[in-house]
Each structure stands twice: as C-alpha cells, then as structure tokens.
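Q: I have three molecules that I believe assemble together. Could you output structure tokens for the complex as a whole instead of separate predictions?
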Amino acid sequence: MATLDTGPRAKLKWGLLDAVVVVFALIPVLWVVSLSLKTTATLTDGNFIPREWTLDNYRLIFQTDQFVRALINSIGIALISTLIAVVLGTMAAYAISRLDFPGKALLVGVSLLIAMFPQVSLVSPLFNIERQTGLFDTWPGLILPYITFALPLAIYTLSAFFKQIPWDLEKAAKMDGATQAEAFRKVIAPLAAPGVFTTAILVFIFCWNDFLFAISLTSTEQSRTVPVALSFFTGASQFEDPTGAISAAAVVITIPIILFVLFFQKRIVAGLTSGAVKG
Amino acid sequence: MADIVLDKVTKSFPDGTTAVHGIDLEIADGEFVILVGPSGCGKSTTLNMIAGLEDITSGELRIGGQRVNDRAPKDRDIAMVFQSYALYPNMTVRENMAFPLKLAKMAKEEIDRKVGEAAKVLELTEHLDRKPANLSGGQRQRVAMGRAIVRSPKAFLMDEPLSNLDAKLRVQMRTQVSRLQKQLGTTTVYVTHDQTEAMTLGDRVVVMRGGHLQQVGDPQTLYDRPVNLFVAGFIGSPSMNFLPATVEENALRCPMGELALDDRLRRLLTAADAPRQLVLGIRPEHFEDAALVDQAGKGFTFTAPVDLVESMGSDKYVYFSVEGGPAVAADLEDLAADAGGADVPHDRANLVTRLSAESRVRGGQEARIWMNVDKIHLFDPSSGRNITLQEEEPAGVAAS
Amino acid sequence: MSVSSTTPATTAEELSEGGRRELPQKRAKAALSEGKRQERRLGWLLCAPAALVMVAVTAYPILYSFWLSLQRYDLKFPSEREFVWFANYATVLSNGYWWTAFGVTLLITVVSVAVELVLGMALALVMHRTLIGRGLVRTSALIPYGIVTVVAAFSWRYAWTPSTGYLANLLSDGAPLTERASALSIIILAEIWKTTPFMALLLMAGLALVPEDLLKAASMDGASAWQRFTRVMLPVMKPAILVALLFRTLDAFRVFDNIYVLTNGANETSSVSMIAYNNLMKGLNLGIGSTMSVLIFLAVAIIAFVFVKLFGTAAPGSSDEGRR
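A: Yes, here they are, computed for all three components at once.
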C-alpha cells in the first residue's frame, strides 16, 4: 500500500510480489505440461523439468477415439450451450436493465438463487428425468443444465454491461423515429457487443469446466466430455500407465483457456468484477 | 410545425408520488418556451411526456391539434436534444445526423443533402466523418442539434442542452441556439434550471415548482411582476432581497427603518386583507448611493455599515447586513435549499445592493443608501402571494 | 398559487374510458398507454425463454427430488418402490457417513474460504496496486480461475504421488494422498489454488471503490499502512468482502471435482456432494440420493440466509435496476 512511494525500491518489492503470484499461479500448469512431455521411462523420476522430451503422449491420445470423441463433445456442447445461454441471457439482461415490467424483481431473484444452487441437488432428479425422457447421455442432456447454470452468470454480467450504455441513447433513438426493436438493433447491440463477447467467454469457461453434470448425466463416449474422459483414462486398459496420456489430454483442454486469458485478460476481469459486485 | 397544448396533464408514479399536477399550457406554433425551476420541479418529466418517453397519467397532450397521448415517440414527429447529447458513439457525425432520416426510409441523396445542409448551418462540415469521442464538448453539442434539425420536425425539445458546456461556451451557444430557433421558426420547448438561460432565450418562460406551474410570462414580466415569493426569488441574479416587514399604523417597519405607507400601498394592503407580518422584496438595482441621487426625498434613505464591496467595473455590488433577522417563509426555504442551503446567521438579514460605479462606498464604513420605494414588493409569508400586484391587471398568467 | 387538483375528475374519466374498448386508441387500463403496454409485453417476451429454462431445469427437478426423497426407490430393486414419508431422512440423518461427510465439507469450506480471504486480499492488493507488470499478474492470476478443475486436480494428484511427483519427494514419509489428514490438506490446497483468484477479483472490485484521496488523507492524518488498511479500506470494502465470502462459501460447500480426482473419497475424505453422487451413481439409490440432494439444498439455503440476514450481504443486482 505504498500510496506515495514509486521509487526503485518499491518497484523491486512489487516485482518480487508479482513473481510470487506468477509462480503460484503457473506451477501446477507447468507441471502438467512437463508430465505430458516426459517419456515413459522418465515419467516417475519426480523431476519438475523433463530429462527426456517426447510428443508421444499427444500422438497417442489423438489416436484414441476415447479422447478425440470426448474433445468433440466438449467443444460442441460448450459452444452450443454458450450460444444459447448468451442469446437468452442478452434478451433477459436487456429487459432487466432497460424495461419496466412486473415480475422483473422475481426474475432477478430466481437467477440469484440459481447462482447459489448446489448442482449436486439436481443430479439425482435430472438423472431420473433424463433417463425417462431419453435425454440421458445425449448432448441436449448436458446442454440444458449448462444453459441453466450459465444463465445467471450471463444475465448479471450482461446487465452490468447494458447499464453502462447511457439510457439517453435509447431515448434519443426513439425520438429519432426508431421502434424499441430498432433502437436495440441499431444502437444498443453494436455498443453491447464487447460485453456480449466477454460474457460468452465466461460462459464457455463455465461449461468447459463442468465435471459433476458431465459425469452424472453421461454413460458412454457418445456424449462424455474431456474432464470425464480424463477420469476414465485411469486404469483403462489401453494405456499401461495413463499419467502421460492424462497429462497430455489435460494440456490440450487447457490451451483454449490459456488463449482466452492471454488475449482477453482485461475483458474477463471487467466481466467478472462488474457482474459479481454491484452491491 | 405545430402548436403544443397541455391540457391538465398529470404524471403520477406507481409509488404514489405525483411529479406533475395537472398543468395547462398552450405553446403557439413557432414559439420558444422555456420550462425553468429547481431540480425536482417536474420540468424534465413534463418534457419527457411531450416527447412520449414518459406516459401521461391523465390529461391530454395535443400536438398540432391532434391528441398524441398514446403515440410512441417516433410517431410524434418531434426531435429532442439531450443534456448528455446522446450521440451514438459507434457512428460518425454524419451517421448520427443521418440516423433519423434513415429510419424514416428517406432516399440516400436526400439524406446526404439534408445532412450537408445542417452541417453547414452548424459549421460541422469538416467534422462529418469523425466519431463523437473525437469531438470537443461544443462540437458534440452542435451534432446533437444537427441531429434534431435535419428532419425538420414539428417541434424541438431540449433538455438542458447547454449545461455540460463550460461557462464561456455556454454563453456563445446560447446565442446560437436562439438564432437557430428564430431562423427555423420551429416550436421549441427548452428545459433548464438556470434562470439566466431562461431569461435570455425564451419568448415565454414557465416557472415550475413541485409539479405546479408558478407563473407563465415573457421574461420581463416575470422579472418585474413576479406573482409570488418563489418566482421573485428564483428569477434574477443576484436575487431579490427579502426582509421581514411589519405593518404599523402609518408605516411599514423593516430592518432599514420605517417606510411611510403611501396611499397605493395602504389600498393594496386593505384590498388584500394582508396580515401584519409581511415579506418585503426589493431587487439590488433599486438601491443607490444616496450621494448620487438627485431627488432623495422621493425614496427612502437609510444608513448601514458596509460589509463588502465588489466592484464589477460597470457597477458595484455592495453587501450590508442589517439588524432584524431574515424574512421567514416556506417559499424562501425552498429557494435557499435550491441555492445550496446556505446557512445564514439568524439575527441579521443580508442585503445585496447594486450601486453606480461612481459610488465611493467603502467596506467597513457606514454608508447612506437610497432605496426606490416604488419598486418594493410585499408578499404574504404564508401563501407567498405578491400583494403588490393585487389591484392592477394580472400580469402574465398566474397559475390557477 | 396552488393549482387546482384534477385528479378525482380525471380518474373517473379514466375508468369510464377503460370500458370503451371499441375505440382502438383508448387504453384498456387506466394509465397504461400503448408504449407502456408494449414495454411490458416486450419485457415478458424477452425474459420468458431464460425464465422458462431456469425454472424447468431447477425448480421442477428440486420439487421432483423432494418427491423422490419421500420414497424407497432403489434402481437395483425397482419393484420395491414405495412411499415412505420421511424414513429416508431418518436413515440419512442417523448415518455416520453422512455426518462425517458433512464435517469434511464444513472443514474444507471454512478452512479454504478463510485462507482464500487472506490470500485473495493480498492478491487483490497486488493486482490493484502493483507498479510494474500489472497485466502479467492479472493474466497469471486468471489461469487458476479458468483452468478445468479436473486438470488442476490431476496436477496436484501427480505432484503428490510418490516417486512421480515433485512435491511428494520433498516429504519423506509415504503417500500423502492415502492418509486422511494430509489428503484433506491437499484437497484444501487444491481448492485454494483454484479459487483464490476469483476471490481476489471480487475483492479487487471492492478495492477500486476506495477513493485514492481517502487513503492520502489518512496518511496525512498519520495513519500507518496497516491502519489505512484496517480503518479506511476494509470498512469501504465490506460489502464486496461479504459478497465474495457468500459466493465462495456456497461454492466451496459444493466441493466435488477435486475430491473425486484426488482421493475419490477414500479414507473418509468424501464431501456431501461426493456421497450423494456415490449413492446415486454407484448405489443407484434414488430415494437416498434425493434425500441427500434435498438436505444439501437446505444447508446451502441456510448458509445463504445467514449471510444475507446476519451480515447484511447485499445480493448483487438487488439494490439497483436503475432506469437512468
């Protein structure tokens, strides 16, 4: 909290603190990368930096249907869920931040409740309902709960973004002869695009990350996502020791996250902080 | 082009508060009308109701003779300039100005022509392809004006369009707005909280308070013949002096001394059935250094210690504080609250006078001051009513 | 100068107008113009899909879950399905495993949230005030937030696996993941690593609300760095801290992924989510699983209630809804 101190010593102090944070954040990730690059022989040597490097683990997983199929499922399910959640969330957030209608407070309350909802409480009933309706072990069977839990996130983040757009702009559009829909399409939507994009990233990360629903509501490769497939690599017969393969798969599904974080750090921070804390 | 008629227009909110209480107002075609009042007086709500951005709870709004209560803003054919300018940040100046025309599905060449014309009038031609973020405050303000004028609407509504500009630019833009309005001859309703703007711009000024009309009239009438304490105190800068006054046998006792009651005043007081305690109002320019007045006998002369002298060059503002405490009335408290609620010591009244530049009055000394008794106003402290206006023909239209 | 009130007359007029529906421009209801009704309709229309999905996927299942919890319903013996009122609740609440899991969950929640609050505050200060490399710090901090929990859990698991892991070799004695105390510590460590950045981001939003001038004024008044932190920053940040705590507490209470990968619940390290899942997926006992679902739901509701009522946590989005 050196409010006034900006000298070289302060810089050194902050530099050290920064280094601690970076190390703290990166070590587990680098460790998995390291494991994924180790040869079978050196896998259990306990060294943080591999002594022998190989890409065999990556070659191996991309040859197995188990992983490739799971990757397709993960990508497909996360993208579709994100798309739907963001579209529905945008509509609702726009209404919440801009329009006056009875039931608005209720909707805000419901989404808040869902944000706090223990997902595991839904696992048993959804398991049974989905088995009866044939949604079990299908893409829609996962997409539905993902949308549900992503919606509160989307609604909060987007309302915060919408509220930053001056209300006068919309009034002005109406005065200029626009209908409500035209005002939205021509004035608000272009301005909201960055917020929508940020929200999409956050929602995608959420869907990409899920494990509980994915493991409870799937049973075969048909709709299993990568996090679940990872846990099934353990003891699977086709690998003697799954550690290398798991690590390689783990690295693969971490890549999109790293890319998001690298390119959109500012937006993600803005999205998380604006949506979550406004009280 | 059209006239605008408000017929008992009322705005209540679901929580039960009423922002506008049944106001009646007729705005003639081509007229420039200013709605002025302290914040919360209902002026912006009234403007928004005319715009169609707020619903009218009851009453009727007619534009060009047609009832438009239920019409969406886009169907009323009126343009609005916002305090924040509300320029679309994703569009260039040209696109901003063309936006209403595009929505009206006007032909491309027609749009180009109209935007070009408006840009020329407002000296925006070289900025047409810039984004609002790259413009100065004054330029943005002009773009907002441009967007309003391109479509030649029936009326302009302006919601404090100059209040985001710095003082100097505001004065400059004020004349430009006024000139533009005269040139186009479009009915204009202009909202402001700044009485100077109201006085200098409008054909007619509507003073509002608490959702009620206080007085409607041309600026000079409002200044010379305010119907009540509120209008008297709100219009004019520096504002009118208010002092407590007591009616006695043959005189009016006020902190400066006893004023003889002449026939006119006595008649007015009787006619109004006035209470004994009154508020005396007099504007700063109705004082003069007694040494500079020829016929001192005509007015009232008193001596008081000078607090402070501010020389403005053309004239001098001289401040006194006189014994006897400030005038007390509900209206005055409202005014003080609007002015920022300055806490005045309660045993003395402050007096602001505007004297000739030649005056030799000095701070810390006693000064002999002449007051033009003909110009005093007397107000009933409980109702705020200006008793001095009673016998004469009603000046301006007092509300109700 | 009071203006005559027009309200009573107008209201009567309004009401009579309400009856004349044949006139298209007349309003169906007093004080509801075309624009207002349009706005309402649009509001409902826009919110309907989101509301429907949310209600269909949460409200209905949780009620259904309650219904299931009142039945003996074991998928291994579907014929023995029977309505048993609250017998399942008696079974669960008198079961040692449930209470062990409950204790484990509470332990993980309390310890990890407490540590996260301290670390998160430190991280927030670093991210907010660092003089150099602000972008780098924020980017790095986002990685734990974004990474798939299962991936992180595997990383920690291998780190602590004897002979494979770089951390296991630091400690000489045996396999830490197979002993209860050390396994729980590792689970908590994994939770802290993963979610401290989220906590820090929420706290950083609170930090941004502390006016710089206030801190400068405090230091002119002779407050030390620590005093500025406790007397000036913390009080201003209180709402943000409470919201962050609420969110993280509820989130930590649902801990599942880390335990599943790190220990799979062995050596009494199961959380309530773990045993509910096991009862359902391994035991295929819908009745008991649902009972646990309902109990977890209630526990979460109580935690949320305590936060909101006792600490006055303002729910995000509750106080605002500003139309201008």
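A: One point stands out. The domain at 87-207+244-310 of chain C is CATH 1.10.3720.10 (MetI-like fold).
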